[in-house]
């Protein structure tokens, strides 16, 4: 068995030259995924530490929709008292952990969304990688805007749910609706996260268009069923049952989907022009795609 001098001296083998198109092996993909996850977790931890310092302000922000809803209920009903039940001795600590985590998730959204995009980026062609800055510039703000819209819709949703508390007729007993802090917090945070993720629709639609999964023609063909599904999703995903909260989610989602369809149409048009310039028979490819859809 022959042993080279380099092995005897303990020299490392030279690293393979990276692929120009960014192709990687399975092991390299797993290492890349681990690195991206680690960066996202570090960003979340740092933001949680920062949010922990502003817990008082965050708690007041989450308390404001409840105060607004209770004030609206008290203006129409004098037989109902709304209170808060902390549950047990560990509830305040768990409350603070949950609030700071969601605040960190929102604040760090540009970072972890970019890490998601950067992980997918090597699978794209060079002329498609220029969308990285556009992704970074829109994904985070859209998530934050969605959370803000959910925050605006929250008081109405809470008011509608509280209005279902039954009225006690011909009695001097005053009804008390004691809200469990943990359940109340889950309601608020779930509503905010649902709105934030829903506003990412154009980002992921364009992403699927870039990788060739969804074409603009297919999006146009599926527009009506998708918008119908958006309204069904809004009705199911929003914790409250009032139509106002559902419309606050469904209407922006539908508008964002239409905008993403227009952007996908522009991308397909430019992609088709580049293929025609390269001498590719685009019409043949389109006919094959239409027959496959049928």
Automatic annotation (TrEMBL):
Start and end residues of each stretch annotated as Disordered: 1-21
What the entry lists under Pfam families is as follows: TatC (PF00902)
Give the record's membrane topology: Multi-pass membrane protein
The answer to whether the entry has keyword Nucleus is: no
Q: What is its main location?
A: membrane
Q: Which family does it belong to?
A: Belongs to the TatC family.
The protein in question is named Sec-independent protein translocase protein TatC
Q: Which organism is it from?
A: Tenggerimyces flavus
């Amino acid at each position: 068995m022959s042993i080279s001098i380099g092995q005897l001296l303990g020299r490392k083998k030279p690293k393979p030259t990276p692929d120009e198109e960014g192709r990687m092996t399975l092991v390299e993909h797993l290492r890349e995924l681990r690195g991206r996850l680690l960066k996202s977790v570090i960003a979340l931890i740092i933001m949680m530490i920062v949010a922990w310092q502003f817990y008082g302000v965050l708690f007041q922000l989450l308390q404001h929709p409840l105060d607004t809803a209770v004030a609206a209920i008290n203006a129409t009903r004098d037989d109902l008292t709304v209170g808060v039940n902390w549950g047990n001795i560990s509830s305040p600590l768990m409350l603070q952990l949950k609030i700071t985590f969601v605040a960190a998730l929102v604040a760090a959204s540009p970072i972890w969304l970019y890490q998601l995009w950067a992980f997918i980026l090597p699978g794209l062609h060079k002329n498609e990688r220029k969308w990285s800055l556009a992704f970074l510039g829109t994904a985070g703000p859209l998530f934050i805007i969605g959370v803000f819209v959910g925050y605006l819709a929250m008081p109405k949703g809470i008011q509608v749910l509280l209005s279902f508390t039954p009225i006690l007729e011909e009695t001097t007993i005053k009804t008390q609706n004691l809200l469990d802090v943990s359940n109340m917090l889950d309601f608020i945070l779930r509503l905010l996260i649902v709105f934030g993720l829903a506003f990412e629709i154009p980002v992921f639609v364009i992403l699927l268009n870039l990788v060739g999964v969804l074409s603009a023609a297919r999006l146009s063909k599926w527009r009506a069923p998708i918008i119908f599904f958006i309204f069904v999703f809004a009705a199911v995903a929003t914790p409250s049952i009032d139509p106002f909260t559902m419309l606050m989610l469904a209407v922006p989602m539908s508008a964002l989907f239409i905008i993403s369809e227009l952007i996908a149409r522009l991308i397909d048009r430019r992609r088709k022009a580049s293929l025609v310039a390269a001498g590719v028979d685009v019409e043949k490819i389109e006919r094959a795609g239409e027959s496959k859809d049928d």
